[in-house]
Specification:
The protein has 272 residues and is an all-alpha fold. It has a domain of 175 residues. It is built from nine helices and two strands, in the order H-H-H-H-H-H-E-E-H-H-H. It has a two-stranded antiparallel ribbon. It is globular and about 50 Å long. The protein starts with a helix and ends with a helix.
Amino acid sequence: MLRARVATAAVLLPLFIGGMFFLDSDWWALLLLPLLLAGAREWAVLAGFGRNGSLAFCGVLALSALALLFGHEFQWDEAVLEAAIFSVAVAFWFLVAPVWLWRGWRLRDPRILALTGWILIVPTWLALVRLQQWPWLLLAVLGVVWVADIAAYFAGHVWGRRKLAPSISPGKTWEGVAGAAFGVAVYHALVWKLGFSGIAPQAAGAAALLVACLLPLSIIGDLFESWIKRQAGVKDSGKLLPGHGGVLDRIDALTATLPLAALVLPWLLLRT
C-alpha cells in the first residue's frame, strides 16, 4: 500500500505543483474542476443519493464553481461573496463538524447531506483557485497538511498506543497527533526562517496562530470523512487514486483547512 501511495504521489504531485505555478488562473481552475466533480460523485455515493440525485448534486456543484469562476460577468462583489463562502465553511469546521463527530450523528436526510457536501467541496476548490496567485504561499499551506499527515502516520506506527477516536478511525492515535504537532512545528520554523522571515512581526504572530489552527482542523477533516465512510460502510471514498482511494480520501484534511487559509491569508498579506 505504501509503495502504491508513493508511486501515485510521484506521478500526480509534480503535475499538480506544475499547474499551480505555471498555469493561468482560469486554466488552473478548470484543471481542478474534474477533481471537484470526482469528489462530488464520491460524496453522492457516500450520502446514498440515487442516480438522479447524484447527477443533480454534481450538476449543482459544477454550476456553482463556474458561477464563482466567471462571477465578474454577473457584476456581483466577488470578494464579499467568496469571503462569505469561506466563512460558512470555517464555521462548519469549527462549530458543526466537532459536534457532529462528538454526538455521532448518523444523518440520512439528503438535503442536509447535499448541503454538507457542497460546504466540503466547493470552498476547497475555490480556495485552491484563489490562493494560486501566491503559489509559494499555497504550497506552504499544503505542506502543513502533508507534513502533519506524514508525521502522524509514522509516529502512530512506531509509538501509537492510545486511540484517538476508536469508533471513527481505529488507526489514529494520540501519539500520532503529537508527532503531527512536532512535525508541523519544525516545518513551520524552517519555512518561516527560509522564506518568510522578512515579514512584519505582527504578521508572524498571526501566521503562527493560523498554523496552530490548521493542525487540529486537518485532524477534524480527516475524522469527519472517516465517520461518513463508516456510516456508508466503505473503507475508501473511491478507487480513482491507487494507494490513496478516492479524491475525498486525499483531500479530506484540505476541505477543513483551505477555507480558513483562504479567508485569513489575503488579510494577512495586506498587513505585511
